[in-house]
């Protein structure tokens, strides 16, 4: 619409300029006299301007005729392609000009102009693999998805443009949310060019979302072979896929296969917390407590986590709180100054009713790194030590406004997840969840509903309900869940 208005305004301006110029020349005196063959021609300024314009047009026509005449002469001299070459050069020149304009318009973001010029180039040039590709991209930019899809389908029929056509259709299906068709297209594109980085990433994501873990691991291997992934990243992501495959096997009640897959995932990436937890539980189910403890200690040394402590508690589920404190020393002696380690020790001691030592284990953590969890532990310690109810409520009030502490956070979009998953629920990125403290927030910590289990006396109804009713569903549990 805007382009049509601009062309109309330019046309009006040109007509107005010619009219004003003609009127000006008519008002001027003098002129030109041309004498030729005994004849004289007197021309006014306007007539002279018109004559010059006609002369230029005639000269241009003469040059064109001379070109055609030269082609005819060459044809008569035996060059059978002289005439066709003459006219094809003109068409090719026009087509290349239109193609250049289309490429420039496409790069500038002018989809409609690019589509128009690409269509023109297609009429002049016998290069469908080039012009059709520009037409498809221009139509896509202009919002004409129907024409873009039709053109991409034409490109798929030609061997040279098959990959480009499939990728174009793949982008359209992804934009439309048709992941099933997109997966099939990505597989075809991968067969044609298995070293293409973007195709590898898209295929891996789609395979992971559809739980095709075996196919995803093959794609990941192709990324390693093509140099798209460093070896350490490949090893980590392969472990994530193996872990996800193990989780699916567990859902299918195939215990032996799940155990083997979980152990394989932990072997490939010992620092992957969910893999360590699943492998440890697999060893526990097989009656191999020593291997389970070793796996958990190794993961704890890299990153202390409540799930590791919960799995460590499952090794001996029926022990007394005092026995558990003693057995857990094999774990808590590894990263003694880590906040998670200090809170775990405090939780174990609270369960064993050793409140003084529990307070000493927390140290200055509630003051320097306050979280809902350690402030709740302080409330439990205060109650266990016989502090006034106002002190207990004070700790609980602070816990309400304190941050939750480390959680599973997507490195790509910042989405917080209640538990680890291989694919972010928000941005669908693969292997982007990290156990870290998210941006400051005032939400309740996981496990606060367990406060009555951490103290000896039954709390009054007014003490805890406000804390419990605002707890978010599905939050992570502290390690005491296994020891209660």
From TrEMBL:
Name this protein carries in UniProt: Heme biosynthesis protein HemY
Keyword Transmembrane applies: yes
Leader sequence segment: none
Entry keywords, A to Z: Membrane, Transmembrane, Transmembrane helix
Organism: Rubellimicrobium rubrum
Residue ranges of domain HemY N-terminal in the record: 30-143
UniProt GO cellular component terms: membrane
Membrane-traversing stretches: 5-26, 46-66
Region (Disordered) location: 462-484
A Pfam cross-reference name: HemY_N
InterPro entries named in the record: HemY_N, Mms48, TPR-like_helical_dom_sf
Localization (cell): Membrane
């Amino acid at each position: 619409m805007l382009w049509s208005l601009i062309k109309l305004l330019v046309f009006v301006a040109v007509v107005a300029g010619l009219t004003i110029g003609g009127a000006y020349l008519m008002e001027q005196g003098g002129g030109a006299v041309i004498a030729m063959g005994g004849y004289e021609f007197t021309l006014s300024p306007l007539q002279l301007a018109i004559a010059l314009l006609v002369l230029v047009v005639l000269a241009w026509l003469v040059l064109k005729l001379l070109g055609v005449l030269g082609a005819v002469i060459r044809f008569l001299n035996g060059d059978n392609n002289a005439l066709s070459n003459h006219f094809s050069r003109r068409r090719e020149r026009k087509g290349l000009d239109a193609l250049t304009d289309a490429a420039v318009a496409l790069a500038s973001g002018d989809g409609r102009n690019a589509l128009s010029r690409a269509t023109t180039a297609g009429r002049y040039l016998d290069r469908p693999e080039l012009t059709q590709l520009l037409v498809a991209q221009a139509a896509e930019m202009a919002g004409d998805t129907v024409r873009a899809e039709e053109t991409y389908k034409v490109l798929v029929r030609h061997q040279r443009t098959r990959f480009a056509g499939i990728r174009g259709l793949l982008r359209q299906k992804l934009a439309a949310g048709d992941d099933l068709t997109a997966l099939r297209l990505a597989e075809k594109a991968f067969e044609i060019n298995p070293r293409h980085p973007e195709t590898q990433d898209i295929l891996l994501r789609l395979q992971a979302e559809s739980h095709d873990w075996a196919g995803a691991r093959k794609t990941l291997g192709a990324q390693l072979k093509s140099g798209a992934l460093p070896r350490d990243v490949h090893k980590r992501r392969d472990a994530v896929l193996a872990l996800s495959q193990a989780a699916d096997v567990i859902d299918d009640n195939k215990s032996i296969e799940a155990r083997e897959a979980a152990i394989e995932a932990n072997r490939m990436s010992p620092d992957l917390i969910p893999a360590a937890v699943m492998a440890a539980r697999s060893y526990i189910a097989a009656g191999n407590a020593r291997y389970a403890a070793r796996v958990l200690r190794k993961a704890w040394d890299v990153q202390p986590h409540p799930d590791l402590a919960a799995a460590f508690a499952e090794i001996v589920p029926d022990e007394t709180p005092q026995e558990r404190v003693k057995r857990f020393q094999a774990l808590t002696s590894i990263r003694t100054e880590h906040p998670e380690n200090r809170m775990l020790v405090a939780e174990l001691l609270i369960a064993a009713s050793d409140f003084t030592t529990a307070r000493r284990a927390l140290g200055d953590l509630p003051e320097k790194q306050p979280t809902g969890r350690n402030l709740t532990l302080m409330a439990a310690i205060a109650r266990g030590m016989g502090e006034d109810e106002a002190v207990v409520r004070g700790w609980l009030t602070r816990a309400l406004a304190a941050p939750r502490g480390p959680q599973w956070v997507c490195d790509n979009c910042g989405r917080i997840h209640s538990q680890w998953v291989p694919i972010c629920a928000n941005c669908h990125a693969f292997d982007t969840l990290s156990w870290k403290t998210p941006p400051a927030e005032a939400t309740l910590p996981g496990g606060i509903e367990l406060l009555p289990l951490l103290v000896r006396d039954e709390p009054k109804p007014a003490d805890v309900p406000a804390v419990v009713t605002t707890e978010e569903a599905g939050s992570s549990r502290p390690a005491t869940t296994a020891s209660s």
